[in-house]
Design brief:
The complex is a heterodimer. Chain A has helices at residues 2-13, 17-20, 23-33, 35-52, 54-57, 160-196, 198-213, 216-225, 233-263, 267-274, 279-287, 292-315, 327-331, 337-342, 348-371; strands spanning 78-81, 84-96, 103-126, 130-139. By secondary structure, chain A is α+β, with helices and mostly antiparallel strands. Chain A has a 4-stranded antiparallel beta sheet with strand order 1-2-3-4. In chain A, strand 3 (103-126) and strand 4 (130-139) form a beta hairpin. Chain A is elongated, with a radius of gyration of 27 Å. Chain A starts with a helix and ends in a 7-residue tail after the last helix. In chain B, helix 5 packs parallel to helix 14 and helix 7 packs across helix 8 (184-221). Chain B starts with a helix and ends with a helix. Chain B contains 15 helices and 2 strands. Classes of the chains: A alpha+beta, B mainly alpha.
Chain lengths: 378, 331
């Protein structure tokens, strides 16, 4: 009795917004409840934003070497000078220790080098369109010819911050392109397999089983080792992406196939068929949109695996090679324990990999929950 | 059931042949062959190489024949137990792999053991004490374990061991036992070194297993039979271990078959980082130097292990779950 009156009350007070919300709205509401996923969404957007404006954020070109500053430790940025906001770094001078031959850096606390924001620097094309030479921050003392190494430098004196920023671009775009390739393969083959069933289905399923039964990492290594050494960076980049996505598509194909098998028997598919729709139209116009959200979630979860694969391959020296810059290429420097112990800042790219991979995992998790807003749960 | 297993074995053989073809052609992909690299190396050292010698070597290894003949030659050798000759080590491939394979298997088994000992109790605990602080802590650690690639974990651990504890992690033996013959002292030395790589290798698997056990057990704990047992006054822990945990273990047992090949191929990169004397670094070096018989044998070996692992897991699944049995044979 009381239940009945309460429903009438809500009806009078206005319709429950849950009843009139569109599906995407419901998903967004559900997604928002997953706090980690929401935070991760911003982290991922931030990462891609960094990759997008890499030239602006870097202090110089990532390839610029400076033999006087090899293995320079991270410089501390002092934000306040005598109580007023005037960021500066203390000037560094490097000398070789005559006994150990290691470069020793000494700080000169009195020699303050001011940091300039939006300063002129190396010219570049912003977003590949506009000529620009402004950088977010840099040191403008041409005389001293020091760069600002707030994350340190590598053995050739290249600025780690600039290299990390540029590496973000390559590492993250490989994940995106790789996942697109596996998505195309996965949807096409999974769709055909699930829609037609029967003989075609078993052929495709057997080949998926075959691809999955090949041990992945040795095969990757084999394929990557087979790339000619004289290929250009761009060619290697696409080849590596292709190799990585070659194995990623199978799990997506399975998800898509399962969905198609279930949906094939639905009434609206029958209706579309009776109205004379072509096969391709039924697949792409009627069936695919009904599980777009699931595909988005599966895709997001596939990206971190690709980032890790690229990092691992490049780390082993089988993936991208210098002068290309990716997180894996940067980590190659941190391969032996002496380097790691003496120059620990070279491990920083590992932090970037871990944060990016965690963020993508949480994001994918949240998307997977949100993909089905009608499922049980509060 | 027998019929199903026989069919699976038949399919397995087809897979192995397929894998051997694929691995052979991948190894053949790089332009040139091992002799080209070898000759370049000799010339760099200032040795002149006579054309005659090269041609003789080429003929001896059958490198002048078309690809499919080379493939058949390799398979023929393998069927007779001859896995070819490693060009770069100048030793038979089987000899090289043999000593490393034992260590690989010991390492893999240790990390599997570590995974189970850690994952099963933690998984059960975090399901039973859902939403407790320790459950959240385990979930968080598990997420990191899943997300962090093992070779990065190896790097970080290596750094901390070196900078904080002052010990050098890496390798499976102390220098004095590196080439020594097997003895009790050497086994003990192995035991002292193996746990760090085993933990690193088992980390990802542990995290995944905790999640699976937790999710399965949470589903089971909702079921009416648990309530019934509780209503009858059964002790809580006895009840949990006796009924729901046993059911939870079913799908978990069925994946045992996958664990071995997964860890073997996963250990490749970690082994390179930690310079372990396992199969992984050998494969990497063989691939880079186009040592085709060595690389081919290793890839084939890993492929066969994967396929057999899948078969074992399918058979286990068949025994555990009768529903799959009927579905499998009738269709």
């Amino acid at each position: 009795m009381s239940q009945k009156s309460s429903t009438i009350l809500t009806k009078e007070a206005g319709v429950d917004r849950k009843d009139i919300a569109t599906q995407w709205q419901l998903m967004w509401w559900r997604f928002k409840r997953h706090k980690m996923a929401l935070i991760s969404l911003f982290i991922v957007i931030g990462f891609y934003f960094i990759a997008f404006i890499a030239e602006f954020l870097s202090t110089g070109t990532p390839h610029e070497t400076n033999p006087h500053f090899s293995y320079c430790p991270p410089q501390t940025i002092h934000w306040f000078d005598n109580g007023s906001f005037r960021p500066y770094v203390e000037n560094l001078t490097g000398k070789r220790d005559p006994e150990t031959y290691m470069r020793v850096f000494t700080l000169e606390p009195d020699n303050k080098v001011p940091i300039h924001f939006f300063a002129h620097g190396d010219p570049y094309k912003f977003l590949g369109l506009f000529e620009m030479d402004r950088h977010l921050f840099s040191i403008q003392d041409v005389e001293l010819r020091t760069d600002i190494y707030w994350l340190g430098s590598d053995e050739l004196g290249r600025d780690l911050w600039s290299r990390l920023i540029y590496g973000t671009r390559i590492s993250l775009s490989i994940g995106l392109i790789g996942v697109t390739l596996s998505l195309i393969l996965g949807i096409t083959l999974g769709g055909i397999s699930g829609y037609f069933g029967g003989f075609i289905d078993s052929i495709i399923q057997r080949s998926i089983e075959f691809v999955r039964s090949i041990p992945t990492i040795p095969l990757w290594m084999g394929l990557a080792a087979a790339l000619p050494k004289d290929w250009s960076i761009i060619k290697i980049y696409f080849a590596i992406t292709l190799i990585i996505s070659l194995f990623g598509w199978t799990s997506l194909a399975r998800v898509v196939r399962g969905k198609f098998l279930a949906l094939r028997e639905e009434d609206y598919v029958m209706a579309a068929r009776l109205s004379g729709c072509g096969t391709m139209r039924i697949i792409f116009r009627h069936m695919l949109p009904s599980f777009t959200s699931h595909i988005i979630a599966a895709t997001t979860l596939a990206i971190p695996a690709m980032i890790i694969s690229e990092t691992a391959l490049s780390f082993l020296g089988l993936g991208l090679r210098a002068p290309a810059i990716s997180w894996g290429v940067l980590l190659q420097r941190a391969q032996n324990i002496q380097t790691v112990a003496l120059y620990p800042w070279l491990m920083l790219p590992a932090g970037a990999v871990i944060v990016a991979v965690l963020a993508f995992n949480f994001l994918g998790d949240g998307l997977r929950d949100a993909a089905d807003p009608y499922a049980r749960g509060k | 059931m027998l019929h199903y297993i026989l069919r699976r074995i038949g399919w397995m053989l087809v897979m192995i042949v397929g894998i051997s073809v694929v691995s052979f052609f991948i190894i053949q992909l790089p332009p040139g062959d091992f002799l080209d690299a070898h000759i370049a190396h000799l010339q760099n050292q200032g040795d002149s190489v006579s054309l005659e010698v090269i041609e003789n070597l080429r003929r001896q290894y059958g490198l002048d024949k078309p690809l499919h003949i080379q493939y058949l030659k390799m398979v023929n050798g393998m069927l007779h137990g001859d896995f070819g000759w490693s060009f770069s080590y100048e030793r038979p491939a089987t000899e090289l792999i043999g000593e490393r394979l034992l260590l690989t298997i010991v390492l893999t088994l240790t990390s599997v053991l570590f995974t189970w000992i850690l994952a099963i109790p933690i998984g059960i605990y975090s399901a039973v004490r859902q939403h407790s602080i320790s459950d959240y802590a385990f979930t968080f650690v598990g997420f990191i374990g899943l997300a962090v690639p093992e070779f990065l974990l190896a790097l970080v651990l290596m750094y901390f061991a070196y900078s904080q504890l002052g010990i050098s992690v890496g390798g499976l033996f102390s220098p004095e036992f590196m080439v020594a013959p097997w003895s009790l002292a050497r086994v003990w030395d192995l035991m002292k070194h193996i746990w760090i790589p085993a933990i690193i290798l088992g980390m990802g698997g542990t995290a995944a297993l905790i999640r699976v056990i937790r999710a399965n057990l949470l589903d089971e704990l909702q079921k009416p039979y648990v309530t019934t047992a509780r209503a009858k006054g059964m002790r809580e822990w006895r009840l949990i271990l006796k009924y729901p945990v046993r059911i939870t273990m079913n799908p978990f047992l069925s994946t045992i078959g996958y664990v071995l090949p997964l860890l073997v191929s996963g250990s490749v990169i970690v082994s390179v980082v930690l310079s372990l004397p396992t199969v992984g670094p050998l494969l990497l070096r063989a691939l880079v130097s186009q040592d085709m018989y060595l690389a081919g044998t290793i890839v084939l070996l890993l492929g066969v292990m994967t396929v057999i692992g899948t078969l074992i897991s399918d058979i286990l699944l068949l025994i555990c779950d009768p529903r799959i049995r009927t579905g499998g044979t009738e269709s």
